[in-house]
Each structure stands twice: as structure tokens, then as C-alpha cells.
Amino acid sequence: MGFFDGLWPGRAAQFDSGNSTSSAIVLSKRNATVSLNKQGALSGNLRVNLSWRMRTSDLEGRSRQSGRLLNPLKFFQPDVVQAHTQGMVNVDLDLGCMYELMDGTKGVVQPLGNLIGDLNGPPYVRLSGDDRFGAPSGETVYVNLDQCDQIKRLLFFVYIYDRTPAFDRTHAKVTLYPGNGPRIEIELDERAPQARSCAVFTVENVKGELIVRREVKFVYGFQSELDRLYGYGMQWGRG
Length: 239
Prior knowledge:
The chain is mostly beta strands. It is built from 2 helices and 13 strands, in the order βββαββββββββββα. Strands 1-11-10-3-8-7-6 form a 7-stranded mixed β-sheet, with no helix packed on it. A 6-stranded antiparallel β-sheet has the order 2-13-12-9-4-5, with helices on one face. The chain is globular and about 40 Å long.
């Protein structure tokens, strides 16, 4: 399987953009779930977007700011983000989705392997490389909520495929934009320096009600480890 950083940048224009003007619902450990039904968001397309920016440790931030006070010219120099060694951190996050349909069909939608899915047919989940709504280079995944009765459960995850495992050096956020109702935000705000993947949230069909649950569980492997954690039971090979 091959790896693609971006897929068809112009394709996302055909999908619903969702309502991004409403106030946001922020899922946290204490308030971890929300019902899409109760938000009136069971039609159109659910847009799920990953965005992130780099960050440095508090210690580095304090030393950098103090250095700039001593030398004002340094204020205009760009930040250098470093890992635990002296090398430059190069982080590339990707968004994927495992799915299980009501008929028992299971699979994954992700950039790795060019598994982009299908919005109007099974699995009713599709990946777009368009990143107009997030940065840098965060993929967007769409879910066809008009076919929600065909979907049993979804697991959205973020992974670092071929770059430095440095989730702790990023401010990452996944935002859900339903066709109706407020957007839903989940921040990857826990530290896991060596993790390669993170289960961000699940969507489960409970007697016709779609429940979004915040997970934010980091693992040190890839999709197969997330699969074992959530019991999808799929067979995985090397990408």
C-alpha cells in the first residue's frame, strides 16, 4: 500500500460544508458525550476535520521569551520546535475512521493505502484531502447522516505514519461540523510523547440515536492496536 499526503484537493466542494457559525460544544473528560439526535443533526453530511499547530514546552517558551527581552531582534525570528533530542521535530498527523455497518461490514477509511471510502454507498464515509477548513494538511472525513440507519459504529483516530512521534509537541483538535446544529470540538490535550496513534472519538448507533463519545486514548502502535482496543476484529498488514 502507498501513502498519500493529500487526496484530490478540489473534491470537497461537492459536499455540504456544515454549520460553523453556531456556538461550539466542547467534549471533555467530564462531559464526554453528545447526542446528534438531540442537536437535530441527523441529515446531510457530518464533516470531521483535523487541525493542529506546533508548540514548544513551557520551559523552552520561558527561556525563549527571556532571551528575546535581552535581544529584541530575536523577537522576529521564527520558533524552532525541538524534540527531546536536538533534532528538529517534523510532525505530520493524519485522520482516519474505522467503521462497522449494521450488516456486519467492517473496514477503514484513511490516507494510507488510498482507502478513501464512499459517501453515497457503503460505508457512507469518505476521506477528502481538502484542507481549506484546517491546517496544516489535515484531512477531512465526511459521513452521510442520511444513511445513519446503516451505520452501527465509527471510530475516528489520528496517527503519525512516517514522521517523528511527537503528539506532545502539537496542539491538535478534531472538529465535527454537522449539517445542522453547533459544531463539536475535541482537543488532543493529553501528553503522550512516544505515541503513534490516538483514538479521538466514537460514534455509536444506540437504538437509532447517534451518540458521539470523546475517547482521546493514545497508543504506541498503529491501527491494529486501536482495533484490538475497540474490538473491530479486522486483519492488518504492513502499510
